[in-house]
Each structure stands twice: as C-alpha cells, then as structure tokens.
Design goal:
Layout lengths: L4 E7 L4 E4 L5 E10 L7 E9 H10 L5 E14 L5 E14 L13 H6 L10 H4 L16
Parallel strand pairs: 4-6
Antiparallel strand pairs: 1-3, 1-5, 2-3, 3-4, 5-6
Length: 147
C-alpha cells in the first residue's frame, strides 16, 4: 500500500504551534495549492507537523511563504457537541521545504503582505521562484536539443 502526498503552495495564515500534554510539539497550517488547469481556483489543504519539524515551521514560516510539503494523507472522524459525526482530512508532513526567501514575518519578501502592498494579490507569482532558476531550451530555433 502507498499513502504519499507531495504539494507545493503558499501558507494562508501563520502556523499555529501547540504542545501535547507529553510535551510533543505540533503545528498546523493551511496551504493554498493552485489547480492545474484553472489558476483562478485553489484547494486549501490543512497540514500538520510534529516535534522538531513543527518547531521549525512555527519559527521560520509565515503567511504567504511558498513551501513544498511531503507526507501522508490522514482521515479521521470526530463527534460534534450535538452528536453529529464529522470527518476531517489532513496531510501529516514528514518533510517541509522552504521554497522562497524571507524571514518568519508576514512582511518578508515573497509573502502575501509584500504582494498586497504593491496592489497585487500575489497568486500570479506562485511557483515563479522555481521558474526563474530553470534554463529553458528554445524549441523554435534550428539548433538540436542538447541531449
């Protein structure tokens, strides 16, 4: 069986760090992931990380930061106060990569606050940091492909 999830998206809010009664750190945050064929739509995915990874996420991530998350999908159920059964789905992160430059504050370069102050919503730039580092081959030229 295989249960692996890999996502790239931007944090929709600052991470929330808590500690269990046993002292284990747990952080939760949500990332917005653009849909492949319609960049005007996004899925909002809840992420949970534990222990040292949780503390690192809480210390170095903030709203608007671009991250890659690798982990597993976890589905759980719970009962509301009025007795209704509800289901929740989270991604439990094994690894979180910070993909853009910036500090832990929301005013860091590449954050949503920086884009908002310039009059943009920031979503058009999702993944742009990755594209800038790629050397593209000119397919319109007469040169052969270099491999």
């Amino acid at each position: 069986m295989l249960n692996r999830v890999v996502l790239i998206g931007r944090l929709t809010r600052d991470p929330e760090l808590r500690y269990t009664p046993n002292g284990a750190a747990v952080v939760s945050f949500t990332i917005a992931v653009d849909r492949k064929f319609n960049r005007n739509e996004a899925d909002f995915i809840p992420i949970v990380a534990w222990n040292k990874l949780a503390e690192n996420c809480a210390n170095y991530l903030g709203k608007g930061r671009l991250v890659a998350v690798e982990g597993r999908l976890q589905v759980r159920s719970y009962e509301t106060q009025d007795g209704q059964k509800r289901w929740a789905t989270d991604v439990v992160a094994d690894e979180v990569k910070f993909l853009d430059k910036g500090g832990s504050s929301a005013s860091a370069p590449g954050s949503a606050a920086a884009h908002t102050s310039s009059g943009q919503d920031g979503w058009n730039d999702v993944g742009q940091e990755l594209v800038n580092d790629i050397d593209f081959v000119d397919r319109n030229g007469d040169d052969d492909i270099p491999f």
